[in-house]
Specification:
five-stranded antiparallel β-sheet, 5 strands, globular, mainly beta, about 80 residues, about 55% strand
Length: about 80
């Protein structure tokens, strides 16, 4: 599985599960993929991601800082 991984960051992703809008505790570079690895959303320097147009299911969220270092990896469930 994917581990939640933090590098000296306090990161919150909420609500999880979501009906479409995910909020982040700070601004991050975000990559959201489906189970096959297809990129669903990619945003720079944001604190929210809208996945309301995606079908219900499991997604993977990768947050990086402005230096490209991974801040957090997380599973996200869309209801």
């Amino acid at each position: 599985g994917i581990e939640n991984n933090t590098l000296n960051y306090e990161v919150s992703v909420y609500p999880n599960p979501t009906t479409g809008l995910l909020f982040l505790s700070n601004n991050y570079n975000v990559t959201l993929t489906d189970l096959t690895g297809k990129i669903i959303a990619k945003e720079q320097n944001t604190n929210a991601v809208d996945i309301s147009n995606q079908p219900a299911g499991l997604y993977f969220l990768l947050l990086t800082d402005n230096k490209g270092q991974i801040v957090k990896r997380s599973k996200v469930t869309k209801e």
